[in-house]
Amino acid sequence: MAAQILARPTLPDEWAVCLRNYAWAHPGPDSEAFLLAKSRELLGNPAWALDPSAGYLEAFDTIVYAHGTSLLPELAALIRDRGQHAIAYAAFLTVDRLMIDQPTIILTQLVTQPELMAGREQSRAGLVARADVRDPAQRALLEQYLLDSARAPSELAAFAGLYPSASFMISNNLLTKVGPPPEDQLKARDRHALEAVEQWQNDPRFVTLKPFLPQIRQRLVDFLR
After folding, report:
1. What are the DSSP calls for 5-63, one per residue?
2. What pLDDT is attached to residue 180?
């Protein structure tokens, strides 16, 4: 029944319920392509986006559930649109949760496609601040981001004010559940982040970041204490 209703635009709230029900009825990766295709249709419906209902906004969680990193360009376009604050916020939360779920994939797109977040550089800084330097791929992408000569001081300041970000939006979502990682994992991540920051302080490549490094280092020392 959910698949039949999702075959054509009806109402965004009805679609949200049907996306949830279809996911419940077809658990696992086999349903992800269908869910993402329908999520793309929902995002691209101009009538629904003009006056977004609660169901329309809740349906964004389907993208997180289906690991929809391929929808980052569409989500980034919604984040850049300053005319619809509710949709921009829903899109940012979706990308943030995708960053938690698939950090290397999202980081790669954010770092190699700067146009995605043009005009929303501080939001990008908040996403990149989730990078975990224990993972060599994430550390390489983070350093590429920090060493980019096009990075404005305001964006570096925003990054320094958050890194390493472990904030979580706890909410009752359509399909997914969100919770903070165990304390021992956070401590381990912070220890490695502190080591990285101290290495950057002694690395001449990071000269543009040096004004911000003491702030990050002190935060990490306080966390670990």
Report:
1. HTTS---HHHHHHHHHHHHHHS-SGGGHHHHHHHHHHHHT-HHHHHS--HHHHHTTHHH
2. 79
